[in-house]
């Protein structure tokens, strides 16, 4: 049985629906499952290049069908990640928010219409199945855990007017024991407090990383007033009392400096989340007698909390689905539908999530690299792992792109940035030169699976941590050795790498160990701070050229940068991404003077506006993906070299911010 699971929003990438809150639809994805075996899976953001994409996942659908070698008519069921009742209520809310701009339409009809529009053929409405949101989360974790018997807990912000559920898995059955109302949402509780720290939705993991720098005792009493633990694993959340906490601290503006107050609030919030989650899970452990736990939902991406559960000793085994957020619901919806149809053939534990697009064959990669010859020099490396290990040991940061991309938010050695884990200064170096993010945020270590216990305190019976979703303790005598990947509290978000499931990445780790004696590398996602993780060879080259990375290893090639000039940039073909628009507007620039101005905006965030010069604006209005900047400027009447140079330098900045796409002409 072929099942296509979907998560995501209502509009295509080029369509604007600003009035839909981000919390309604985000993290779009598609997964194709055959009898429980994953054939293909990818998040829409990897393809449309919109972080946490709230768009309809049409590119992900096309990829999955192509990878499976089928068209949509061959698919038996199309499973969406929310109940039909919730989707219809959401459409009613959207009609209200848009003043009736959305036609009166039900969710099934709209979903079939979007699929038909995107795939160019009519879709059988009867193939569409709506899966309750948290049941999709539950299926995604239990059915891939390899367990025959388990407690299942899904916790997130919201979905289907709920914020979680508790279930038990036994063989091929998943039985829901209880649901958690949205009023008790741990995800929404966390977001409401981090707003005081200048953060919002999708920033939760940043506060998790900030927490170890603080003292939870300072605001423990105030934080405790925001919730009440009740008997039988129950609790209440008092979000209306967050204002009292706001009165006690200096609220941080977004982008502002951090004070010790902010660090202490983060620490007490993390402590509160752990107290609430363990209160629920401990009760359910005792009530059900289950000795194994499966976790999913956005809150399950709190790796520190996961580590506390693991070390608590409550369970013999703990499994966290690596794409625990809403993208993982595409996976769960497909699995749940397969199970409900009695067509599930496998419940094997997943070994990897390399279900995405391949970075390319050798010939394809070489064509991409050769097209950029004015910017890059490349060569085939006979011993690529050894070459990469050598430059890393010498202090370089290297982009590493191999094979199929990872499903989920973690780079697990197929789309990674690698560096030496030993010098503590490397954390600041990679944060500044590549990631361009807050300096306090930690980096994760990847370690050869066979050497993991030598460096990290692994609980008994748990030897494999391939998904970088648990924070574990670094052995005390190894903390100084792993200066760049050991957090301030002596922990690390560990990934173990097995030769059988991740051979290319295992090879570079082994090569680094052979040269340094340390079987560990600093591993972070291959992207900068404004883009999703890279996916295609073009994404890889773009990110490499617009960050401070020293070298690139892609396929079998070792790549270095050349020095380029503004004329080289001006020779590149300019294109505008589908989710970006160029506006030419007339506005007052002084009390008594109006002028024509140009702005770049996007289709998913009304708050994003970037002003561009008149020369570049005129050129971008003419961009078609085929003509170079030099040609566009000439067409716009810009023929002075100084003005052209200024426009090229401005364009290069927009390229780094991903407002424009540049390619060698003819590539």
From TrEMBL:
Matching InterPro entries: ATPase_NBD (IPR043129), Carbam_trans_C (IPR031730), Carbam_trans_C_sf (IPR038152), Carbtransf_dom (IPR003696), NodU/CmcH_Carbamoyltrnsfr (IPR051338)
This protein's name: Carbamoyltransferase C-terminal domain-containing protein
Family designation: Belongs to the NodU/CmcH family.
All residue ranges annotated as the Carbamoyltransferase domain in the record: 22-335
Domain Carbamoyltransferase C-terminal stretches: 389-561
């Amino acid at each position: 049985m072929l099942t296509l699971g979907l998560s995501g929003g209502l509009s295509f990438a080029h369509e604007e629906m600003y009035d839909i809150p981000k919390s309604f639809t985000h993290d779009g994805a598609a997964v194709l499952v055959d009898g429980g075996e994953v054939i293909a899976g990818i998040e829409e953001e990897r393809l449309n290049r919109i972080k946490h994409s709230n768009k309809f996942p049409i590119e992900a659908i096309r990829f999955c069908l192509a990878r499976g070698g089928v068209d949509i008519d061959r698919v038996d069921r199309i499973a969406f990640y929310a109940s039909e009742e919730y989707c219809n209520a959401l459409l009613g809310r959207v009609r209200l928010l848009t003043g009736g701009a959305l036609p009166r339409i039900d969710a099934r009809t709209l979903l079939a219409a979007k699929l038909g529009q995107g795939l160019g053929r009519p879709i059988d409405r009867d193939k569409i199945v709506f899966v309750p949101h948290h049941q999709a989360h539950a299926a995604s974790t239990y059915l891939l855990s390899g367990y025959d018997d388990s407690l299942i807990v899904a916790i997130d912000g919201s979905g289907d007017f709920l914020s979680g559920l508790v279930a038990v898995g036994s063989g091929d059955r998943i039985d829901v024991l209880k649901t958690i109302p949205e009023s008790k949402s741990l995800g929404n509780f966390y977001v409401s407090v981090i707003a005081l720290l200048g953060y919002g939705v999708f920033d939760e993991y940043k506060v998790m990383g900030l927490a170890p720098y603080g003292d939870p005792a300072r605001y423990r009493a105030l934080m405790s007033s925001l919730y009440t633990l009740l008997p039988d694993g129950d609790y209440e959340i008092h979000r209306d009392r967050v204002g009292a906490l706001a009165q006690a601290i200096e609220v941080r503006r977004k982008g502002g400096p951090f004070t010790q107050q902010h660090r202490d609030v983060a620490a007490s919030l993390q402590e509160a989340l752990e107290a609430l989650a363990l209160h629920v899970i401990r009760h359910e452990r005792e009530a059900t007698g289950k000795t194994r736990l499966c976790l999913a939902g956005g809150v399950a991406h709190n790796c520190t909390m996961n580590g506390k559960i693991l070390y608590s000793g409550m369970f013999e085994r703990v499994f966290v689905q690596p794409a625990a957020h809403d993208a993982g619901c595409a996976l769960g919806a497909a699995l749940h539908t397969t199970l409900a149809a009695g067509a599930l053939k496998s419940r094997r534990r997943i070994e990897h999530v390399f279900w995405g697009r391949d970075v390319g064959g050798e010939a394809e990669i070489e064509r991409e690299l050769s097209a950029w010859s004015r910017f890059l020099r490349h060569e085939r490396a006979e011993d690529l792992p050894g070459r990469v290990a050598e430059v890393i040991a010498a202090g370089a940061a290297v982009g590493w792109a191999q094979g199929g991309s990872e499903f989920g938010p973690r780079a697990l050695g197929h789309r990674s940035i690698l560096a030496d884990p030993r010098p503590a200064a490397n954390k600041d170096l990679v944060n500044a030169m590549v990631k361009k993010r807050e300096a306090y945020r930690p980096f994760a270590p990847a370690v050869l699976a066979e050497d993991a216990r030598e460096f990290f305190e692994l609980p008994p019976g748990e030897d494999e941590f391939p998904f970088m979703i648990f924070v574990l303790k670094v052995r005390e005598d190894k903390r100084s050795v792993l200066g760049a990947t050991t957090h301030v509290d002596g922990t690390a978000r560990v990934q173990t790498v097995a030769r059988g499931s991740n051979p290319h990445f295992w090879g570079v780790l082994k090569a680094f160990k052979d040269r340094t004696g340390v079987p560990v590398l600093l591993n972070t996602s291959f992207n900068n701070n404004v883009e999703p993780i890279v996916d295609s060879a073009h994404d890889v080259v773009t990110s490499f050229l617009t960050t401070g990375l020293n070298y690139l290893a892609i396929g079998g090639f070792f790549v270095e940068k050349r020095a380029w000039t503004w004329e080289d940039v001006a020779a590149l073909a300019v294109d505008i991404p589908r989710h970006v628009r160029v506006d030419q507007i007339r506005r007052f620039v002084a009390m008594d003077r109006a002028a024509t101005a140009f702005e770049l905006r996007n289709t998913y965030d009304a708050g994003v506006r970037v002003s561009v010069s008149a020369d570049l604006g005129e050129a971008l209005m003419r961009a078609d993906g085929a003509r170079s900047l030099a040609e566009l400027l000439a067409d716009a009447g810009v023929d002075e070299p100084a003005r052209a140079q200024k426009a090229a330098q401005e364009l290069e900045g927009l390229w780094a911010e991903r407002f424009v796409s540049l390619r060698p002409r003819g590539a």
